[in-house]
Amino acid sequence: MESFNVGIITVSDKGSKGQRVDESGPAIEEMIQKIGGIVKRYVIIPDEQEQIKAELIHMSDDLGISLILTTGGTGFSKRDVTPEATMEVVQKHVPGIPEAMRARSLQITPKAMLSRAQAGIRNNSLIINLPGSPKGVRENLEVVIPALRHGIEILLGEASECART
Q1: Fewer beta carbons within 10 Å, N or C terminal of the chain?
Q2: DSSP characters for 80-140?
Q3: Fold observed for domain 4-155
Q4: Which residues is 38 bridged to in the sheet?
């Protein structure tokens, strides 16, 4: 697999209304391109659970995107519903990814334990929730990037789970 398709969903009430410039989505795109990710769809939507679910399903089922990364909506605010939307659409949970992200982030700040980020699989799509800040996006993606390509290859049936690459 030389490249893989990526979808980015920025979840932000203010961003969706044009009241805030999204810096997290572009940070994801910059990092993911370095490992062969090609962004096929990038959207900014409000913190609305049904809208988040619909976009995740669209990217997975209709567009066949291999890696879907969300940014935002993983905190304690009443409007933060990205993890709930994600867990409603995935068919398999992938707890190791958010566990690894939180473990690494805890070395930087004790506030990392407040992240409710989730990860899971829907059909042939790996969905990962990332924080809403560019700094948090970079710190968390750095943790998962070394395993992403292999995970996607397994998901798409292009690699054995036993491979050590």
Answers
A1: C
A2: --HHHHHHHH-SEE-THHHHHHHHHHHTT-GGGGG----EEEETTEEEEEE-SSHHHHHHH
A3: Molybdenum Cofactor Biosythetic Enzyme; Chain A (3.40.980)
A4: 5
